[in-house]
Design a protein that fits this description.
Strand order of the largest sheet: 13-12-9-16-14-15
Radius of gyration: 29 Å
Number of helices: 22
Helix content: 40-55%
Shape: elongated
Largest sheet: 6 strands, mixed
Structural class: alpha/beta
Length: 556
């Protein structure tokens, strides 16, 4: 069923554009940076993903088409996003009457309708843009259908056409050739097409990495990629207008979109009014945004107004590219033998971990667990042959181990720390001249000597390990994963928990971290009470800055 194919493939394609958005942004030179093309296209596609995902599981193509049309219109950002919304609308509406399974003729009809809708939305279509690419793909689809080509082969051919068309954009648009780039919107759309086809043909993984997995498309992809040579240019010509204005418009009876479009052309350029009564998306470049809004307010209501200063965006883009090029010009640092990554929720925790030798601290903890990708990226930044990861939370351990399994360029070893104080003890056991495996073994032995305590608020009714009832809002003292103390005062529960743990097994050193909600005065007073109650216990106090847990500590 075509509706199910679209529902499964569209999110993959949207993610591919999101992953490549920064590279697409840097290409944006026509005629001035109109927002950030990659970001705008990604936001537009993301809105569609959410709207389609909200549909019932048995929704037909008509319902999916309606969701795509509405979602892309409501989420469209920038000139590229608005035109993309019309391409998607035409494609989706063209597939409503498709056969099951879909045929080459159905696909050709859909692309033909996409071209019709997209070109109708633009008063002055420009060659060498996303419009050229969609038209070229449509022409190729017509030829494939006439040749009675099978659907898989046809889809592969359309990916080839998409990239070949992108590679031709500098020959059609002088501003692109002058800057040594392909059209950003066209490149972004080719990314989307490639990823969608890869997903439809069961080649999802390659699409996310933006590597062409359709073998016959590799030459075309490389031809386009070879022309993505970004140059510095802080002298943007081709438009006399500074502001990019875009907003949603709820029209009243009597609104004439063609008349509005004609009037907007007198106020600026790149004007678009797309949609159907009463919901429209308006886009125009002008020097006086107030005049644009005043005119449209005569005929209805405006909302979700975005006004971008394109001169400033151009300057920021140039500065960003200069910084990237400067960074790229620096020789790569050789990898060291051993690196460390740790997860921490508070700024104070992060500072302590770094002072102990952790290379990269990943933000996370309870209720905000980092992903496998987050940990893998951090391990790459550590720039070492072997990286030891300290998850510091039981809920993060699996993601860390998944990162270890996924890592190909360097080794990741996970030391299963459950708390940040355990990580402190583990880092004290490090021997930088030893192997990752020997260090991991020593670190595991070190954390076995650490007993942890945490103090936090109950968020629902429960009971402690000894059966004591717990009510929402109570203060809980947790030792070794068990709720050992229940009370109503953070300081008293902390003291009671430490006393209980000391009575069970006496330790020598207490490392205690204050959370973000405990001020210095309260923390100092708490430490004084601990020292009075446990005179033989050495107190090592720090500001951890962690959320949700006013106090965490360890006893060794």
């Amino acid at each position: 069923m075509i509706a199910n194919v679209i529902r499964s493939c569209f999110p993959v394609a949207a993610q591919a554009v999101a992953d490549k958005s920064e590279d697409i942004n840097k290409l944006n030179v026509f005629p001035v940076p109109d927002g950030d093309t990659g970001t705008n296209m990604s936001l537009t596609l993301g809105t569609v993903v959410r709207e389609v995902a909200a549909l019932p599981a048995d929704s037909d193509m008509a319902a999916v088409a309606k969701a795509i049309t509405h979602g892309s219109l409501m989420g469209a950002r920038g000139n590229s996003g608005v035109i993309t919304s019309q391409i998607l609308r035409g494609m989706a509406e063209g597939l409503v009457g498709a056969h099951d399974p879909v045929t080459a003729d159905d696909i050709a009809v859909a692309f033909r309708n996409s071209v019709k809708v997209a070109f109708k939305a633009v008063r002055k279509p420009v060659e060498g843009t996303i419009l050229t690419v969609i038209r070229d793909i449509s022409s190729r689809a017509d030829r494939c259908a006439k040749e009675k080509m099978g659907v898989p082969e046809m889809l592969e051919a359309l990916v080839v056409e998409a990239y070949e068309s992108v590679a031709r954009t500098p020959d059609l648009l002088p501003v692109l050739k002058e800057n040594g780039v392909v059209d950003s919107g066209a490149y972004g759309f080719a990314t989307f097409v490639e990823a969608f086809v890869n997903a439809a043909l069961g080649k999802v993984g390659a699409a996310i990495d933006f590597d062409t997995s359709v073998a016959t498309a590799s030459g075309a992809h490389n031809a386009a990629d070879a022309r993505v040579a970004i140059e510095l240019n802080d002298d943007w010509e081709g438009s006399e207008y500074r502001y990019c204005n875009e907003f949603l418009f709820k029209a009243e009876e009597g609104f004439d979109p063609d008349a509005a479009l004609a009037h907007l052309a007198t106020l600026g350029d790149c004007e678009l009014v797309v949609g159907s009564f009463p919901d429209f998306k308006v886009h125009v470049h002008s020097n006086e945004p107030n005049r644009v809004l005043e005119y449209m307010l005569k005929y209805g209501q405006v909302y979700e107004v975005f006004i971008h200063n394109m001169d400033m965006e151009a300057h920021d883009r140039t500065a960003g590219i200069a910084a990237d090029q400067a960074a790229a010009a620096k020789p790569a640092e050789p990898r060291k033998q051993l690196g460390f990554v740790a997860v921490a929720a508070g700024g104070g925790e992060a500072e302590i971990l770094k002072s102990l030798g952790v290379d990269v601290v990943v933000s996370g903890g309870q209720t905000m667990n980092p992903s496998t990708a987050d940990i893998l990226d951090a391990a790459a930044v550590a720039n070492a042959e072997s990286v030891i990861v300290l998850p510091n939370n039981g809920n993060i351990r699996m993601a860390a181990e998944a990162a270890a399994s996924a890592s190909e360029d360097f080794k990741i070893v996970v030391v299963p720390t459950k708390t940040v104080p355990q990580a402190f003890a583990a880092m004290f056991a490090v021997d930088v001249d030893a192997s990752a495996e020997d260090n991991a073994e020593a670190m595991v032995e070190a954390i076995a000597e650490v007993r942890d305590g945490e103090v936090t608020h109950a968020v629902r009714d429960s009971q402690a390990a000894d059966g004591t009832p717990i009510h929402d809002g109570d203060i809980m003292g947790i030792a070794g994963g068990d709720i050992a103390i229940v009370g109503s005062d953070v300081e008293q529960v902390t003291l009671d928990l430490i006393n209980k743990m000391q009575a069970e097994q006496e330790g020598d050193t207490l490392t205690i971290l204050a959370g973000q909600d405990m001020d210095d005065e309260r923390f100092e007073a708490l430490c004084d009470r601990i020292e009075d109650a446990q005179p033989d216990l050495e107190v090592d106090a720090h500001r951890g800055g962690q959320p949700l847990y006013p106090v965490i500590f360890s006893i060794e």
